[in-house]
Amino acid sequence: MSEENNSQNSNPPNPENGEIASEIQKLQEQAEKFKNDYLYLRAEFENYKRNAIKERSELMKYGGERLVRDLLEVVDNFDRALSVNVSAENFNTFKQGVDMTAQELKSLLQRHNVIEIPAHGAPFDPSVHEALSSEATDQMAPGHIVRVFKKPYKLHDKVIRPGQVVVAKKPE
Q1: Which residues form the domain of 91?
Q2: Where is this region: Disordered?
Q3: Considering the domain boundaries, does residue 6 fall inside one?
Q4: Tally of domains within the chain
Q5: Between these two residues, 15 and 53, which has the higher pLDDT value?
Q6: Which residues are paired to 115 by β-bridges?
Q7: Is 2 part of any domain?
Q8: Residues 106 and 69 grouped into a single domain
Q9: In sequence order, what DSSP letters do the residues of 62-128 get, joined into one string?
Q10: Same domain for 78 and 56
Q11: Which residues contact 136 (CB under 8 A, 6 or more apart)?
């Protein structure tokens, strides 16, 4: 009787068991592949983040290199001008050289998108100008700039230095 029970309880070989085992094996291999792909992508992303941080840091550190290189040319011209012994005979030539160097500097700033904002005679704008004082005058409409101590400048669209100005007011 025990043999009968054993033969009844033991499962005969089932073709589905082999298919299930095969399917499990495939799924385990696929899961392992997904895990490896995930780990690879995670490592790639970490490298990307590290490189992006390094690149941004270098951009912050060396971003002004082109401007500085251009400014050094102007500095060289000023150094040459300062090495000249100025006399009455060469004063006009010296002044012309300094004027040319100043123009070169202004041109360089424009090439780097630093633009002077016209101020004299313009209406006072607190987002662009800093009023140092006011002056009673008939020469200029009230609220307009009568004198400029420091010119305002912008870099692209941003004011990087407000102008220091005197604003006209109506005489009393």
Answers
A1: 64-112
A2: 1-22
A3: no
A4: 3
A5: 53
A6: 154
A7: no
A8: yes
A9: HTTHHHHHHHHHHHHHHHHHHTS---TTTHHHHHHHHHHHHHHHHHHHHHTTEEEPP-TTSBP-TTT
A10: no
A11: 168, 169, 170, 171, 172
